[in-house]
Structure formats: structure tokens, C-alpha cells
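Take the subject:
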Amino acid sequence: MPQASPTPTTTRERLGFVRVAAVSAELVLGDVAKNVTILAREARTLAQRGCRLAVFPELCLTGYSCADLFHTNALLAAAVKGLADLVEATQDLPCVLVVGLPLRVQDRLYNVAAVLAKGRLLGLVPKTYLPNSAEFYERRWFSPAHTLNLSTLRLNDQDVAIGTDLVFEVLDVPGFVLGVEICEDLWTVIPPSSHLALAGAMLLANPSASTEVLGKAPYRRHLVAQQAARCLAAYIYSGAGAGESTTDVVYSGHGLVAENGNLLGETERFSFETRSVVADVDLQLLAHERLKSTSFRDEAGSIGFRRVAFSIGAALGGDDRLQRPLSAHPFVPSAKADRAAVCEEIFAIQATGLARRLKQARAKTAVLGLSGGLDSTLALLVMLEAIKRAGMPLSSALTITMPGFGTTSRTKGNAEKLAEALNVELRSISITDAVRQHFADIGHSEHQHDTTYENSQARERTQILMDVANKTGGIVIGTGDLSESALGWCTFNGDHMSMYHVNVGVPKTLVRYLIEWCAEGPFAAKAGDVLRDIADTPISPELLPLAADESLQQKTEDTVGPYELHDFFLFHFVRHGSNAEKIRWLAAQAFASRYDEETIAKWLALFFKRFAQNQFKRSSVPDGPKVGSVALSPRGDWRMPSDYAGDLNS
């Protein structure tokens, strides 16, 4: 078997990204020589941008709309010669090309996709399903793939593999395994790409010539994204351009690149000029998804596929700037999302989970420690919705504010204002005397501001909540969020504990997003101003004494780092299995204008250290609703030994 050549490429490629393009070329119907020139020029341009795969439209060497001219010897001969010319013209490019042409095999004509690279024609894939209704009548000219009765074809003085059982592996670009299907193949009940994915194809190419009618573009967009999701693959779709439009049909040149259900980019449609969409797909991410998915692993492996292995050498050009959507706040919906719909869905998940627990426990009250901070505020808003869903009266909502040594007038005041605005009972129970008594009992100086000093206060608050819940026949609603769980930023058997952790699936960046939405949306009239102030309040456990001017001495993000960074780290580590180097590299791009690489590296090292050290807290966390694709419940989503001694940051 061929061996891979040494691979230094860009950092981007070393970390698993491969640059691909879907191209809608400005073609001349029937003029193969001109089309070869156009395709070769565009292939060179894309290779110089670092592309390793360029997918051109169906039958692009001749044009899709040649109709009965496909039966002429002159056009068929020109297509074969044009393919040879294109192979030669691109022989120095470290890029795989997928192009389409009509090809006579024995006494049948096939609509095929040719795969070529580095001066070699690597294989030919015939179209499996031929549309033959409405405006399509391909069966007039072409035969379907199953009528092919050979596996190797002599073409242009070369023996070439032909068939639908081919996958193409680039040995010096790790993870680059390509499968090809053509246009209508995607629209069928079980597309060939499904079997290609099971045979190892991580990249799926579709040279296409789909006509444009009202509503078809969004349907096509969803179809491509969904097939990428089902196959846990990247899908590169290239549609014939406006120059193919003739007689009764119009083509738009729709190019799409999708990855595991997410659309990475698409071309401008209805252009007569060449248009391409270039995107970096993450092969490591896809490999991680396949490794985790029991459904994918348990599928019967597609046997009988032939793997064509080859090397293409180092990339010609292209920089390390990532060409794909990369959000600095991956847990927060994009600006294009329907914010109200997203927030309502999150609230529904949280509130339904809590309502079920309230009903099961036959609770008379829901008891919550209300500090005036982000987490307890979100928990209160969700709790009110849960009480309503559980059919309980508003009077069953019981909140307690428990001022201590570090409580500020701002947070205490906001807790009071919020409870009043929402017509919720709020009790104020100072913990100062009780904690001082506890210090005396255990022989701890009040002036020694260490872990014992801080945790004693957190545990006293939890004791009060638990005892009040017992006294009122209720349950304690926990307020800790997903980010705190990841970092272990909670007091074991203190705020770490409750009867139901309603925020445990919501990361800190999303908590703030939800509260800001509540301030502008459903709670604007009642509590908009106070919610906005809570969203702007510095995050703090308020366990250390205040300064002489009553200002905070303790801000969480000064100690553990910015939560927006930690949420980014958490997402890419848990969701995508990315290693430390890749996370640092991605964060440097996502936060280029906010944090330098040294700062990112510092907080990432802390993240991994705390994540590993605090698994014991997550292993005994109370129940709570899973909200998104990243969760850390030891009963479902995340299992690791509490005594893990490895270095996650290596």
C-alpha cells in the first residue's frame, strides 16, 4: 500500500482542518476546450488559497444541457480529450478535483464524476439514480450505474477504476477520505453517500445540476446539511451555474459546504461569473463524532468498497486564518437565531424538569437562595414558570437572601427589588452570627480569610435552605451552572448541593444571555431595570469582606479567569474532543481582539487543571436538566475517574 509522504503543512491542517471548495464555473455549453481552460484556471486559484478539494458541477466539461448532443461522437470524444488536458494542466496542484463528463463505456453512456490529482486520473464514479420526470429526462441518454459490467476502464492510455464502490484516500492529509455521488443520488431514499460514509468517506462530494424553482434552494440547503449530519461527514455540493439555463429551465449555481448538520458556507446564486464557496472542514471533529456515535459504529460496515490511495504533497498556499464560522461564544445562539424561540425552549426544558420534580416530591414550596447574582436570578425566573406548570400557587415560591461578610448592598438590593417586582416572598436571614459561632466551635480565626472561611459561609447558607425546605414541606432549588460545575467553582456540600439543580445544564455565558432576554422580553414591564443591573453586576461569591468603601474585594473572574474563555474551552473539549493545542489555536482566532495568546494559554491551563481536579464534585452532583449538547452529569454525559492523574493540557 502507498505510504504517506512527510506532512508539514499549515498549522490548520495539522490540527485536522482541510480546505475545500464548491465551484460553479462560468461554462460554455459544448465548448470543452474553453471549459477545460476555465476549470484549470479556477483549480489553480483555489489551490493557491490552500484548497485540497475542489468540486465542480455535474457534466461540467461539456455542460449539463447539451441534450441529444450527448449522442454525438464529436462531443463525447472532446470530453475524453478534455479530461486528459485537465489532468495535465493541473498536475502540479496539490488539490483533488472532482469534475463531470459524459463517458461511453462499451455500448452505453454514463454520467460520471472523474476524480483527479497530481497528474493522475484516480477514478470514475457513474451516477446511480437518473431523474426522468418533469424537466429531467436523463434516461434518454444515460444508463444508471448498476448496468456497468466492468470495474476498470482503459482511458487515455491509463487503466482507471470505475464504479460506485470507490473511496479516495489522500495519505498525506490525515482523515481525507473522499466519496462521490451525483446530483439525484442525494434525493433518494438511501443515498449512495450513506454507504460511502460507512466505508470510511469523511468528505462527500456531489457534482450537481439542479434546476431552480421557488422553494427549492432552502430545501436543497436542508437536504445537504441533513445528509452531512446523518453521515457524520462534510458534504460539498456544487450546482450548475446560470450559464446552463436554457429553454424552460434555470440553473442558479448553488454551491454548499456543510459539516455534520451545520452549513459552513454557500455561493451567491444566479451569477453568470464563476462563483465558489471555500470552507475549512474539521476532520478531527468528524472523526470524534464517529468515535462517539454508537449508532454509526453499530451500522453494518459497508464491505466491498475499493480504496484508491495516493499522496498530493504540501499545500501550495493559504494561511492559517480559519475559513469557517467560529463563535467566541459557542453556547450563545447566533444573531441570526430567533432569540425568543431559543430562550423559550431553554426555559421550557428547565421549567418542565423542575415541575416534574416538584410534582413527584409533592412539594408545598420551592425554596431558593436569592443572592441578586446571575445564577440565582435565572433559577428564580425558571422556578416561577415551573410552579405554574406544576399547578402550584405563586405563594409556594419562597426565596431567602442570606447576607454575610462579603454581601454588597447592590446584590442584596437587587434581590429585594426582584422579589418585590415578581411578587415573591423573600426572607432575609443573616449568616454572620451563625458563622462566627461556627468559627468559635472549630477554633478558626475570623481574620484568616482562607478556604475554611469561605466554605463555612457557603455551607451555612445551604443548611438554612435545607432546613427551611424541611420546615415548609418543600425542596431546595440549586442555582449553580454548567461553567461552575466544569471548574469545580462551588463549595462541596455547600452550594454544590440541592434537591434539584435547575441551572446545571446552562453555561455562564448563556445565563447572562437569558437574563438579558428576560429584561427586554417577558419580564420587561415587571423587572426589566433590575434584571439589566443584575446582568451587569460583577460575578462574585461574595465570601470575602468588603473594602472600606463597601466595594467588592472578590471577583470570580479575577481568580479563575473570564467565563467566556472557559465556556469556549469547555465546548471544544467536551463537545469536539479537541486537544489543548487546537483549543489554544481556535481561541486565539475567536478572541483575537480581546486576549493575547499568553493569556489564553494561562487560563486554558487553569481550566484543564480544575476540570480534572474537581470531577469528584461532579460525580455527586444533584439531578438537573440537560439543556444543550454539552452536559457533565455523571449519570449521562460525562464519566471520568475522580482520581485522574494525567495532564489534560499536554
